[in-house]
Amino acid sequence: DIGGKEKSIKGRFLHITDMHPDLYYKENTSIDDTCHRGKPKNDGDRAARFGNAMKGCDGPPDLMYYTLDWIHKNLSDEIDFIIWTGDNVRHDNDRRIPRTEQQIFDMNRQVSELFLKTFKDHESDDPRDLKVKIIPSLGNNDVFPHNLFSPGPTLQTRELYDIWSQFIPPAQQNTFDRYASFFVEAIPGKLAVISLNTLYMFKGNPLVDNCSNKKQPGYKMLLWVGFTLQELRDRGMKVWLSGHVPPIPKNFDSSCSDKLALWLHEYSDIIIGGFYGHMNMDHFIPVDGEKAWDDIGNSM
Amino acid sequence: AVSESSEFFEQDFLEDAIAAREIRAEGAKPVKKVNYMNGVRDAYYSRISEDVKKLSKKDPLYERYSIVHIGTSIIPTFNPGFRIWEYNITELQTEEEVLHSHEPWDSFFEHLDVEIQKIIEEAEEVEAFEDDEQIDSEIPDVLISKKKKKKKKGKKGKKNKNSKNWWKTDKTFPKKKPKNLPPGPAYENQLFSPLRFVQYYADLKEIDKQYLKLLKEGKSEDEAASIAFKYQVEYASDDKPYPMKTTLVKDYIELASELSGNDKLWNTFLERAFCSSGYED
After folding, report:
1. Which of A73, A127, A282, B142 has the most CB atoms around its CB within 10 Å?
2. Which residues from chain A sit within 8 angstroms of residue B274, using beta carbons?
3. pLDDT at residue B273 above 80?
């Protein structure tokens, strides 16, 4: 690596997403009361220590702590990097405890610090050294208000840079301020992972419309994507994409999903694929680049 | 500008999508997720299945496709889960290190900022001109001042959207991939090709049962939690009933095609999509 230390490559990496830890989660309360309060009506209504599948509560903090600890103990020596695709804050689902901007920043910071602590390289003299590289991306619940993320630079992009400063290469501070996107050389000079701020293309973000209008942040971010991909190609590097919201027509404005599909297609010599979260379900979507050209041609 | 698949999606699932978005906005019990997955099956996998024979001759590596991998979550919408990917590093162990002299990333990003800003400013200039033209076309000629006419003359030409190559002037469209470039790691097994994955999950019902049992036996809460909490392998990409040789695009396209026509496989796929939680709509 750049510090001159030798690191062996294991040929494995982790994708983890959507932890949604909820600091108000209380074991043995009523699931119907968002696992925050109240006596359970019956055993099926009892909030379990590590949460209950399919009941709609957010994640108990213990689920996050024990998950990262389990990964650290069992897998951290086997992996080269971690792709972590966001949503690190509870949902806004309890009217008695609405989320605040400060809480969202604080929770993002806590989760980020937990990752740093868990994957710290204890053998290194440099306290910032990590055993594995970590590439976070921004979830629609990591911003305030929920889903709304305006074009940078803003207070939120600055705060996020501060929270993720150990994950984002310093040379990318300015570009991160504008697009909340960046990339990391997971294997220096050979393999990169791009963290895309998918909220600039997300239908659910009322502050953005499409990727056709030049004033839209999605349009500007696509310029960044293009220049970055070309530079990676020129350097002979390969790249994974990552982000929170999957780039499919269900979630993206079609001008954004189609354009991104074109980039995936025309840079298929270097792009290996993409990792996303948000939907909570394990599945895959094949994106057809040639069809995207046809669709755009027809629409014009 | 709605693509065929999105049109299909919008028609069939618009109501569900809106409802689901509203529900997710609040964070709630999963609803209509089988319906969503069936939509994915119809809109993507079945369409691929229709074309796969024709495509396998024309484009045997299925280079027209790229794969979007969507991961299961830690939040227990279903069971918590995550995935470990394995990729080809053989060449790293044998290749000789070649030192390249590239521009430092610092200067790349410095130029990048300037370049993007320039493009945006130019685009805004053209757009302002188009707006002027729009206004002018709505106002009778005699009312347009000489000054404005002069200004209009001197401005940059409007891009012709009817031209075949209109997209070449817009840098948010990629240039076509040069034909001499070989297929990437997603298509042919080489350095960094994804070869296999292992999906881990935590069976929350089982963990809770074990945790309560240990508490009854007199263990402390922390002891009981440490013993009871564990992740286990849910499945690997090369597991039955639909083992994938590798996890290249062609393996996914073949899997999509198989899933579209085989209900038994589809049920296993759904079970895995919901992280072995037993979810049904």
Report:
1. A282
2. 281-282
3. yes
